[in-house]
Write a structure and sequence with these properties.
The chain is α+β, with helices and mostly antiparallel strands. The chain folds into three domains: 2-121, DNA Polymerase III, Chain A, domain 2 (Roll), CATH 3.10.150.10; 133-252, DNA Polymerase III, subunit A, domain 2 (DNA Polymerase III, Chain A, domain 2), CATH 3.10.150; 255-373, Proliferating Cell Nuclear Antigen. 18% of the residues lie in helices and 42% in strands. The protein has helices at residues 7-18, 78-87, 138-148, 204-213, 267-283, 332-340; strands spanning 2-6, 32-38, 41-47, 51-58, 67-70, 72-77, 92-97, 102-107, 110-117, 133-137, 163-169, 172-178, 182-189, 198-203, 220-225, 229-234, 237-242, 261-266, 289-294, 299-306, 310-315, 320-323, 326-330, 346-351, 358-362, 369-373. Strand 25 (358-362) and strand 26 (369-373) form a beta hairpin. 35% of the residues are buried. Belongs to the beta sliding clamp family. Forms a ring-shaped head-to-tail homodimer around DNA. Residues 253-376 form the DNA polymerase III beta sliding clamp C-terminal domain. One of its GO terms (molecular function) is 3'-5' exonuclease activity. InterPro entries: DNA_clamp_sf (IPR046938), DNA_polIII_beta (IPR001001), DNA_polIII_beta_C (IPR022635), DNA_polIII_beta_cen (IPR022637), DNA_polIII_beta_N (IPR022634).
Length: 379
Amino acid sequence: MKFTVNRLEFIKSLTDVQRAISTKTTIPILTGLKLKLEAKGLTLTGSDADISIETFIPAEDDKAQLQVEEPGQVVLTARIFSEIIKKLPEDTLTLEVTENYQTEILSGTASFSIKGLNAENYPHLPEINAEDTLNLESDILKQIIGQTVIAVSTQESRPILTGVHLAIKNGQLSAVATDSHRLSQRKIAINVADSVTYDIIIPGKSLSELSKMIGEDVAQVEVRISENQVLFEFNNTTFYSRLLEGNYPDTDRLIPKDSDTEIDFNASEFLASIERASLLSHAGQNNVVKLALNTENQKATIYSNSPEIGNVEEELKFQKLAGNDIEISFNPDYMKDALRSFGQSTITISFNAPLRPFTLVPSEDQEHFIQLITPVRTY
């Protein structure tokens, strides 16, 4: 096996594939990166059994300047190989595999020799023969991931909550995540037949890695779903993720249908106020911020008190306030995550009672995006 390639273009593919490689895997060969060279181009594969990423560098790609001299395949220790490639002195590199998978890497005056492994022992990637293919615009997919993955659980005690629940029904895609303290739900209409239905749970970690890989040069992402795997395809990259097994909780019943108090904020202005208040809440023992709404005097005030350090109080700007007076305490980190997902838009926050969950929605479109936060009991 022997090829020459542009180093910087090779690093881009290498970086993508490395997202799937973990040093903690119980299968030793999966700490490695598989390279398969054919006349048509070079395929790089990485996997940790949960996520598998495969990217292809075509021989005709002018930027990559790939020259195929002798086809073959090898598995190389990903961490060491990646560090070597990034430190090489020249714009191009030559890789050659000789007897017993000994691998020579040459660039300018630098020469490395590292041990490789037999690629025949590398696990085969899953085959997905789904009949229906979904085509999603990349910016919409990234937005859905960014708005929902913030609410997935990091606790392995309830594995099902570490994923995002995706359901497709009647031409609508619904994505929802909750860690039982907060919830995020996004709905969009997609261009599929009404007969196409799916109900799957994708690990939040998989979606986070996928989102990082979808660059500005990606227009559309092709999605195929099988019984226990989902496949995302874009440009020359294929991203596989296992699906979580089990039934996701019925989250619709958690979302209040009405409210006693509503207030409209500019999301970015309110976020700045929460960030100031959380400076003290983070420094103290209890990470809590309190919001007091007085409808008669049309006042909204935010407080944070840390006995060890001090306190902060700020009167807030808002567009509209109606309903009953209320004082409510919450985790400011949950609020900040929720507010960031709305960007610059105006949002409506709806409350029922000091210990009942409250919701945040864009004022212009209250049907398709909702964030829910459970208050904190402070007495």
